[in-house]
């Protein structure tokens, strides 16, 4: 499974961005997908996660009500709509895909996309 993120950039506080993560390869094997972020000097943290059918989502408390995760399985693409952005949202955002292969869980990661929110 290969993951490629896009949509990052520089935005002013209060603005919006939409990230996309396109999957290729053995996409039929993907279970849950998610967005993580890592700010300088901090550990990578979960931002949002979505199940394979898109029926269940969960969010970090810090983004609830502002971010929306979704996926279009027909396009093998996951999205993160980010509204009301804050400077503390500045980080590299990574796409993650989980694959359960024969009872063993594998994590795949994209290369990351930079999101910078100016005050």
What does this structure look like?
This protein is mainly beta and 119 residues long. The chain contains no helices and 11 strands. Strands 2, 4, 5, 6, 9, 10 and 11 form a 7-stranded mixed β-sheet that branches. Strands 1-3-8-7 form a 4-stranded antiparallel β-sheet, with no helix packed on it. The radius of gyration is 14 Å and the shape is globular. The N and C termini lie far apart (37 Å).
Uncertain segments: none
Give me the oligomer status: single chain
Number of helices: 0
Q: What structural class do helix, strand and pairing data support?
A: mainly beta
Strand content: over 45%
Biggest β-sheet description: 7 strands, mixed
Average of the residue pLDDT scores: 95
Shape: globular
Overall helicity: under 10%
Distance between the termini: 37 Å
Summarize it.
The protein is mostly beta strands and 119 residues long. The chain has no helices and eleven strands.
Supply the key terms:
globular; 4-stranded antiparallel sheet; 0% helix; mainly beta; 7-stranded mixed sheet; 11 strands; 119 residues
How would the blueprint of this fold be written?
Elements: E1 2-6, E2 9-12, E3 17-24, E4 30-38, E5 45-50, E6 57-59, E7 67-72, E8 77-82, E9 91-101, E10 104-109, E11 113-118
């Amino acid at each position: 499974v290969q993951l490629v993120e896009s949509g990052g950039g520089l935005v002013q506080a209060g603005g919006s961005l939409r990230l996309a993560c396109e999957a290729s390869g053995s996409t039929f094997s993907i279970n849950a997908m998610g967005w993580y972020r890592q700010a300088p000097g901090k550990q990578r943290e979960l931002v949002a996660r979505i199940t394979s059918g898109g029926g269940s989502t969960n969010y970090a408390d810090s983004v609830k009500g502002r971010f929306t995760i979704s996926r279009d399985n027909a396009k093998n693409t996951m999205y993160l709509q980010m509204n009301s952005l804050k400077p503390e949202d500045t980080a590299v955002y990574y796409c993650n895909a989980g694959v359960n292969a024969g009872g063993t869980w594998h994590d795949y990661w994209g290369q990351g996309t930079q999101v910078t929110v100016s005050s």
